[in-house]
Every structure is written in C-alpha cells, then in structure tokens.
Amino acid sequence: MRxxxxxxxERMLYDIQSVMTRLVRAQNELSSGKRILKPSDDPLGTxxxxxxxxxxxxxxxxxxxxxxxxSRFEMSESNLDTVKDLLTRARDIFIRGGSDSLGPDEKxxxxxxxxxxxxxxxxxxxxxxxxxxxxxxxxVLHRPFEVQKDATGKIIAVTYHGYPIPSRDPSTGNLNExxxxxxxxxxxxxxxQNVPGDWAVMKETNATSPSDDLKMFRVIIQARDALxxxxxxxxxxxxxxxxxxxxxxxxxxxxxARVGEALAYIGTKVERLQGxxxxxxxxxxxxxxxxxxxxxxxxxxxxxxYSKEQLVYQSALKVASNILTPxxxxxxx
Length: 333
Prior knowledge:
Elements: H1 5-32, H2 43-96, H3 104-125, E1 128-129, E2 132-133, E3 145-149, E4 155-160, E5 182-186, E6 189-192, H4 197-200, H5 215-228, E7 237-239, E8 245-247, H6 248-295, H7 299-324, H8 328-332
Antiparallel strand pairs: 1-2, 3-4, 5-6, 7-8
C-alpha cells in the first residue's frame, strides 16, 4: 500500500493532538487535584460524588444546628441553676418565716429578701441568648414574663406571654415538643430549641390567656405579703389559681421539683446532641473518604503520567520536525 505524504502529515498531527490532549488533562488534574473534572470523565463516579457531597452538606448543617442548640441549652441550664439556687434560698426563708419567735421587723426583712428574689427570678426567666428569649416557647422575639407592680414598685403579679403552652401526651406522659420551635438535627429528626417558661415555672391552669397562675412567682408573692402582714408561714397556706390551698413549704417544694425536671430535661437533650455530633463527625470522615477516593487524583501517579506524556510530546515534535523537513527541492534532487 502506498503511503502518501498527506496521509503521513495528517496522522502525525492527529498523534500530536492526542498527546497534547492527554498532557493537558494531566496538567489539569495536577493543578486541580481532581480526577473527575467533568461528568463525562466518569458518569457513575460523578453521581456517587454528588451523593456523598449531599450527605456531607446535610451533616454540616445538622452539626451547626446541634452546636447552636447546645449553646442555647447551656445558657438555659445556667439560668435555671440560678433559679434553683434562688428558690432554695426562698425555701429557707419560708422555714424561718414559720417561726413563732420572729417579730414584725424580722418578718419585714425576710419579706424584703423575698421581694429581691422575686425580681431576680423574673430576670432569669426573661434571659436572652443573642436576640432571642430562652424561655419564650415559640414566641422567642418577645419578652415572655411581664410583671404588674403596685404604687410602691413591688411586684404583685407575673404573667406569661410566650407561646405555646406545653402539654403532655396522654398515652405516654411525655412532653409534647412538636410546637416548641423544632430544629432539624438529623434525617427526619428534630429537637426543640428551648424550654417554654410557663412549664418551667409550673403553670397551674390550662388557660391560654395571660393570668396570674404561675406557681413559682405566685407562691413567693403570697409568702412575702403574709410576712409583711406579720403572719406565720407555718400557719398560713398558699392558695393556687384554682382556689386550692396547701402549705407554703409544700408549694415551693413542688416548684423546685419542676425546675429540677426542667434541668433534667435539658441534660438529656444536651447528652443526645453530643452523641449526634460525635456520630456525624465519624460519618463525615467516612463520606469524605468515599468522595475523595472517587474524585481526588493520586498526585504521585498523575505526576508520573504527566512526565511520561511530556516526554512523548517532545518526542512526537522531534519526529514531526524530521518528517516536515523534506521540501519540493529535496524531491527534485
């Protein structure tokens, strides 16, 4: 078969273009560090890489939500710890206020201390994290606890304006968390971002309108007023929003138990969040390994290929120069 010069030149150019294509690809892989530069390079691998990236992106979002929730719960826990300490001090005052040996002035001093405790309790339950109230339920942008004061500036009532009022599932007894501003922390898994204040301070009725039915504040207000009137707290009784009566010490013990329940609730949530965060860190490493195995280039191997293609390219150019050297004059000779 006769091989023409035209065929020889076209074949030479085709080979040089092929070598250049491989050389450019090796250069791109080295500069980008990626094996898959476009979907056509590995359609199946591209689909898997996109899937792993999607999983990694979701876990990154969940971890950010978890970290935010952990910060909120830690702040809530700190404030509730202070509330517990204040209530414990109030309980001691209730015991002292039941002594027959106290005079009016001593009872007035105890009443003043209860008044200070009351104001600090309101401050703690109105605590904020950033620009959001910690104990406002779903209405986090508005102050949850509002006070009513008399002409002397003393608190005479505290009302709750947060939403919603938490309830318990009648079948399980668990708190209903669906309306507590849930935050996504997993695939189909949500967690409330706060503890509604009306539950933490022991709301006494099921009324949805603001009213003086928050036991934490009500019991202290009544005890303070009784001491101001020189009454004995072991004799006087606390009257709840429904008209029922019980000993002051029993009432504050119930409030303390509720605060302890709220702290325990936060503790379980924080523990679960820590477990999820650790799990996602491990899964992220696994998914990142799968993605890297498919998408990232083996730099050492690519560099060897690059050096080889560069050598081939230089050789092809040298051969081409020898082929292109003969001219019409050469044939005439």
